[in-house]
Fold this protein.
Amino acid sequence: MRNKKPVGRPSKYRPEMCDVVIKLMKEGASKCEVAAALDVDDETLIEWAKKYPEFSATIKRAEQLSSAWWQREGRTSLRDKSFSYVGWYMQMKNRFGWTDTQKVKLDGNLHIHID
């Protein structure tokens, strides 16, 4: 009986890619930018995160670092008149799930409470 070789191409994944992910996202990069830097597509990052626990942990940590970078940019640019708050806010909404929501509650006496 012969050993069967794996079907398909070998993975491009290398553990040292975790360092690239952290470096880029620490500077505010998106997962799309990371995928481009690693010369793979977005779906490959998802598959690697499922297959390699260290890569999954790296992506989670890197997302936090990227969000922190963007939050710091907004916080430290409060007095900069040339800073695009609209652009910054759209990034926060689209990339990090910020929303413009209000919680509305009705009590038993038909009173409306807005938080």
